[in-house]
Amino acid sequence: MKERLAPTPVRRAWVALARAAVQGPWRERPAAIAQVWPLLRAHQASVELWAGGRKLSELVLENQRYRLGRDPACELPLAEPGLSRVHAILEKQSPSDREFALEDFNSANGLFHRDRRIRWIQLRDGDAVRLGSPLKGEAPELRYRHPRSPLEQAVLLVGLAALAGSSLLVSGMLVAASIGGGSKIRSISGPVKIFSADGRQIDAKEGSSTALPSLQAYPLHLRQALMASEEARFGWNSGIDLFGTLRSALLGTGGGSGLTQQVARMVYPEVGRDLSLTRKLRELWVALQLEVGFSKNRILKLYLDRAYLGLGTEGFEQASQLYFRKSASDLDVGQAAFLVGLLPSPNGYSPCNTDDPGAGLERRNLVLKLMHEQGWLTDQALIDAQRRPLNIDPSACRESTFSSYPFFSDYVLGELEGTRFGLDLSSENAAGNYAVVSTINPKLQQLAQDQLKRFLEGPAAAVGLSQGALITVNTETGDILAYVGGGDYSRSSFDRVQALRQPGSTFKLFPVLAALAAGVNPADSISCAPLAYVAGCRSGGGRTSVAEGFARSENVVALRLAERAGLGNVLKLARRLGLSTPLDADYNTILGGRETYLYELARAYAVVANGGRSVPMHGVSRIYDLGICGSIKSLEQCPERGVTVPIGEQSRQLLSPELAAAMDQLLAGVVQGGTGRAAGLVPDARGKTGTTNNGVDVLFVGYSPSSQLLTAIWMGNDDNTPAQAASGGLVAELWGRYMQQAATAVRGSG
Question: How many CB atoms lie within 10 A of CB 547?
Fold first, then answer.
């Protein structure tokens, strides 16, 4: 009979676990499993000391620190003439570390690993370190043993099986994609970069990248830091980490994505950012398409161009300018490692994070250590880089040079795709890679955002209003100088400047203009008697003047003027001045009961402010095609064919100057003695209030001739919740506060 082999410790551990799981009463099995579980996790480190081809001693490592040398007091004594009294230290750097490290203790003959002298080494099972130069005869040797526990061996086997399976699956997917016609992604355009009139980048959300012209323009150590930290196998792998992807999706932890998968999210936002398995599968498919259609260098450059690095920066060039006030091409090793270290959590690891200000330094040093492990940094280079201060520009934490005006940026994209320019930004070949110089004035824009936010949190909230919108226009040029589509873009990106809302009494501009055009004089007397379902004048008098009735926003006066001019003529005039929404020739329309756009109301009032001439409102003043210009930094040298200066709409005389002047005085009367008195902070203010039933919509549209600024403001609630205490007079108060400071800001920027 054959002699039966004794079971190995690994086998004994698994057999014990199996018995504990299936034998005995159910209630006792958890305790039995817990009792044998330590056997599966058991692992023990030991060292052997060899000299002259024979083993001198062996020691199981149970303490945290051991001295090795010729001194008998050492925990690992070795009486060899080539050794120093204390030759090296063997220790765990942290109690939680699995492995021991061996460090030279300034010995005479040193430590050698694979015929190379070392000062320090993190030991692994099977490592052999000579205690002296192999060139000086037979030096003693330390051999390190630390085999995997049964559980670690099982995890390793599962990982290898998963890696092999993922390799086969990915290979099959690559073959299928190639046979099926290759990548469906033919091109990836750069972003549309939007700038203010003074050259500041103002793109929506986190902005868009300001990329360097080529991959080689990014320093080699930056590329090495990125690959060491994010994916060391990027240069030769398939581009996707299938096992890591499935693990993160099933656990809902995020992460698990290789560089190509991260690029897939950057260039195709429709992939999504949720933690679902379906998002991971979409990400895998786009990454696969990228790998089939683009080179590794192209994918790596896309990552460097677009990775989000906190504080509104996108791409390493933009982040380098913010944190270090230099181009990414000039980053040293430590600075490159710092930026790469931000990637997992740009805001959490930011040096501006007061909760953990040292996180950025820790992350930098971790990336440097990873670069050292990959062989991209020498021992001395690692020490030098870790000792170097971060030296972050302090202003980066106080205020970013990047300002995001998301509502206006969305408007600009719409203008680019509209009739004015006709760009197809959704097309494969045309999408993006433009630099757009806009008309926005950063001082006015910031003032508008701040004033609206404070008003929504204060007086508006007190009467039940939660949302607002504002647009400011130069009444002569039509330049949009400020544009705020709501209170908080991160909560709601819905643009209320271009939302359908009832204009209320601001619509009365049109019946009054039509009546003046029909020969009515502002001083003419109008009956205050009730008309149809509309009550008489609130003053209770029998008659009032046109000017007085308009200033007090008397509904019955507006209706009688519309009757005198003809309701059809009122609608024709509204169309001529720019209203495009459906309007009916009835009393409800005349009293502002038909929905229209704040944007179009502003355009109509601007005609009066401009002496009756049309004001072509616009937000784009120039477009650069970066595919021709080459770089955002060389726009002044861009060939003429790469620059588009819009022709612009020719201004037309829509109202006679006399009619515009008469209407101008009536609008001044609204502020001087009517419903818009709260706007009187601006000495030459003209405008009109608007309030719909129960305060659902409250507005003020007005302008200042001296500053050539017109501002239209709407306030209300997105769900049309009434705010009965609200009125157009309240909005006129905000208008006055804002316009008073806006005039100063315009003069200062001019």
Answer: 23
